Amino acid sequence: xxxxxxxxxxKEVVGRVLETDSSEIADDANFVFDLGxxxxxxxxxVAGFEEEFEVELDEDKALEVQNLDDAVExxxxxxKS
Length: 81
Hints:
The chain is mainly α. Helix content is 62%, strand content 0%. The radius of gyration is 11 Å and the shape is globular.
């Protein structure tokens, strides 16, 4: 899967979970500081990524991901394994 497709789908998940317009999410947006995610929403993001990409993510490592670019990279690496 191409990075641009992963990025598009990550933005859709983030928009859905954080109830914001996915087209307005910057590529380097920080989930907490820029988008206002709390700890529960962070867990919902991980679950949303797992569902969207049909992968099981290491939850501890996934929760360390703080911004959209890092999420795209993390998911791209997870899809390779």
